[in-house]
Amino acid sequence: MSWHVLGAGALGSLWATRLHRAGIPVRIILRSAQRLADYQRAGRLTLSEAGRTSLHAIPAELPDATTPIQRLLVACKAYDAEAAITQLAPRLAPDCEMLLLQNGLGSQQSIADRWPQARCIFVSSTEGAYRDGSMHVVFAGHGQNWLGAPDGGEAPVWLDELDRAGIPHSWSSDILARLWRKLALNCAINPLTVLHDCRNGELLHYREQLSELCEELSELLGACGQAAAAEELERDVLRVIEATAANYSSMYQDVRLGRRTEITYLLGHACRSADSLGLAVPRLHALHRRLREHLRQHGLPTD
Ligand code: NAP
């Protein structure tokens, strides 16, 4: 059975090249005839990892190809994922599996609701990759991939293919708790790095602001039934800030490079969830407003 990878960007290429290297059948799905023609001219994806470079002539196709899709890795940004799947929906096998790599929350639930016949597996990844040109991915940071189904369930048998491909992974019985925790860390750190125009480590000058945000985020996690994900949140936020002190956050980099952020699925999702529960989170709302204003001033989408 072949894997189909929708979105050959940073993370999609990282997965596709490792699967291909292990001899596991994989196909990439590109968004347009132009992108497919560009890829066919290059003839392969390039993976750079620890100073080594390898070339991977992975078969590529368009969303409207006709072969059925049994296992789909959705590697688009959160704001593109649902529309991208819609383009190939007629090809989804009745019992297909979709692995959703998106950051934040909200896009995964929309997709699971829209295609109830598919088994959706949510993925929380701490691996890092970036594109250096359209057909070249650089594996920048080793990490882990937690996979899990929102309603629990057994681990799929094909996890051994990830072992063979050297893709680190763990099956999580509570993937939503992992995604909520990651979302809370992101909400506490990333918007402040944008608004204070600083590296992660410099946020230690804003301890009171961090503490107030963590308090509201912990309340929100508790109200969402994610009490375990709220435990010692502030301590974890400070640990991440110290461990990544010299780094610029992903949102900071998106803004600096003029790229759309995933704000709707991060801080936006936190604010919407609080509103739907009638929970007052004035500091999160104020942060969301200031961040959106900042994006507007920089000519970037505010959603
Ligand atoms: P990316 O480099 O921007 O890749 C997204 C890809 O999706 C692009 O190649 C884009 O195509 C493609 N795409 C969008 N709409 C499409 C469509 N309709 N049909 C086919 N392809 C389509 O993004 P990324 O960094 O890999 O991130 C993907 C997700 O993983 C995000 O939610 C991100 O937050 C999460 N994540 C990323 C990392 C990382 O280190 N990169 C780590 C953890 C989590 P074009 O090239 O044509 O625009």
Brief rundown of the structure:
This protein is α/β, with parallel strands linked by helices. The protein has helices at 10-21, 33-42, 78-88, 107-114, 159-165, 175-195, 207-223, 227-230, 233-243, 250-256, 267-277, 282-297; strands at residues 3-6, 26-29, 45-49, 52-56, 60-61, 69-74, 92-100, 119-125, 128-131, 136-141, 145-148, 170-171.
Explain this structure to me?
There is one protein chain. With 303 residues, the chain is α/β, with parallel strands linked by helices. It has two domains: 3-172, NAD(P)-binding Rossmann-like Domain (Rossmann fold), CATH 3.40.50.720; 177-297, N-(1-d-carboxylethyl)-l-norvaline Dehydrogenase, domain 2, CATH 1.10.1040. 45% of the residues lie in helices and 19% in strands. The chain is built from twelve helices and twelve strands. The chain has an eight-stranded mixed β-sheet with strand order 5-2-1-6-7-8-11-12, sandwiched between helices. Strands 4-3-10-9 form a four-stranded mixed β-sheet, with helices on one face. Helix 3 (78-88) packs parallel to helix 4. The protein is globular, with a radius of gyration of 19 Å. It starts with a strand and ends in a 6-residue tail after the last helix. The structure holds NADP nicotinamide-adenine-dinucleotide phosphate (NAP). NADP nicotinamide-adenine-dinucleotide phosphate (NAP) binds at residues 6-12, 29-31, 35, 63, 75-78, 80, 84, 87, 101-103, 125, 127-129, 131, 262. This is 2-dehydropantoate 2-reductase. Catalyzes the NADPH-dependent reduction of ketopantoate into pantoic acid. Residues 3-151 form the Ketopantoate reductase N-terminal domain.
